[in-house]
Amino acid sequence: MKSLIYVPIIHTTADLGSLGGDVTKRGIVNLGEELWEEHRKTVDGFWDAVSHYFDSIDVSGMKIYQDGMVAEGEIGEKIVEEGIKAGSKNYELLSRLLQKRAILLKTEDLALVKTERDYLIELTKARTRIGKLIPYLRYRLIKNQLLGKRDRFIADRINQTLSSGETGILFIGAYHNIIPILEKDIHVKEIKDTKKIRGYNMALLHGGKDRGERLEVLSEYLISPILSSWEEI
Question: What is the pTM of this model?
Answer without folding.
Answer: 0.88
